[in-house]
Write a structure and sequence with these properties.
Layout: H1 3-29, H2 33-47, H3 53-56, H4 59-76, H5 81-114, H6 118-128, H7 133-142, H8 147-177, H9 183-214, H10 216-219, H11 224-238, H12 243-255, H13 263-269, H14 278-302, H15 308-315
Helix pairs in contact: 1-2, 2-14, 4-7, 4-11, 4-12, 4-14, 5-6, 5-8, 6-8, 7-8, 8-9, 9-11, 9-12, 11-12
């Protein structure tokens, strides 16, 4: 066997065992397993040079999208409709306030200390103002927080993705055209992106419940629902909306499908509904755990040691 293949197999198997070990260390010592996984990525990547980002190629971005879709879907399956009803106001307030504050602070620092223009500073702030769902959700799931706080943090991490994309694109269009940034257009874009992504996720959940309830072969296959999540994510992104929000809405809807009422809704999903089984949820948690493991190792590999100042600021 090729030595590179043997080393790759050894590395993959070791990562699975180390991920479970790090999870147990977190349970006992409260040391986040995320940091330990990133450190391993740093060790095999930039520090020792065993793996480079060029070796991973375009698969890295695809792998990140797969991980994000499944993490958001899995987190959505743990949210109840009552928790969403109690948390959406707090989520909007927290997300908007933190994102606006981040843009203001980053823009001021960029303009005063680095000589950026105000538009470039706002663009920089919009890029840095979001929190990554793939990072936040695994951390939140390990913390001893009440249901409302967890729900707010999960939704906030997903919603900032929409804020980042819409506002950054608006700033770039303004820079190219020479016109100013239109607040009304940005607000409309955020609302349309969020609302339509949620609608796609909910409609796909109703459709999937109808398909599962009428087809025992698909229903008994444990891989079909995660595969359908990728379809939902891909269709939503292809249409220009947030695939992350759609995956989250799909997860919330499919586990709460029994609570959907109304004549039109019942016409779509039928009288007999199907939600995720216990085996499917356990499988989903395991595959998400594995993807999360390699995702954070990939983040460590992707870190570039070219600017010492940037590294020190990041550590601070």
């Amino acid at each position: 066997m090729n030595s590179n293949i043997a080393l790759a197999m050894l590395f993959i198997g070791s990562m699975v065992f180390l991920a479970h070990l790090f999870a147990s260390i977190y349970a006992k010592r409260q040391i986040p397993d995320v940091l330990l996984l990133i450190f391993i990525g740093l060790l095999v990547g930039p520090i020792c040079g065993f793996v480079k980002t060029d070796d991973i190629g375009a698969f890295g971005s695809v792998f990140s999208a797969i991980t994000l879709a499944l993490i958001l879907f899995e987190s959505g399956t743990s949210l109840s409709l009552s928790a969403l009803q109690n948390s959406w106001k707090a989520t909007m307030m927290l997300t908007s306030a933190c994102f606006v504050a981040s843009i203001i602070i980053v823009a001021l620092v960029s303009v005063i200390f680095f000589g950026f223009s105000w538009l470039s500073g706002i663009l920089f702030g919009a890029i840095l103002g979001g929190t990554s769902s793939a990072v936040v959700i695994p951390l939140v799931s390990q913390l001893a927080l009440n249901e409302k706080v967890k729900t707010v943090l999960v939704l906030e991490s997903a919603l900032t993705d929409v804020y980042c994309i819409v506002i950054a694109l608006a700033c770039m269009q303004a820079a190219v055209s020479g016109a100013g940034v239109h607040i009304g257009m940005i607000t409309g874009s955020i609302l349309s992106t969020f609302v339509l992504a949620v609608c796609i996720g909910v409609l796909c959940a109703m459709l999937w419940s109808r398909i599962l309830s009428g087809n025992s072969t698909i229903q008994n296959s444990i891989f079909t629902t995660p595969s359908f999540v990728f379809i939902v994510y891909g269709i939503t992104e292809f249409l220009g909306y947030s695939g992350a929000i759609a995956a989250l809405a799909f997860g919330v809807s499919i586990v709460n499908i029994d609570r959907f009422k109304g004549f039109i809704v019942r016409k779509i999903i039928g009288e007999k509904t199907h939600t995720l089984t216990h085996a499917e949820i356990v499988f989903l948690k395991e595959i998400t755990f594995l993807l999360k493991t390699f995702f954070f190792v990939y983040i460590g590999i992707s870190i570039i040691f070219t600017n010492v100042t940037a590294i020190l600021l990041g550590l601070i």
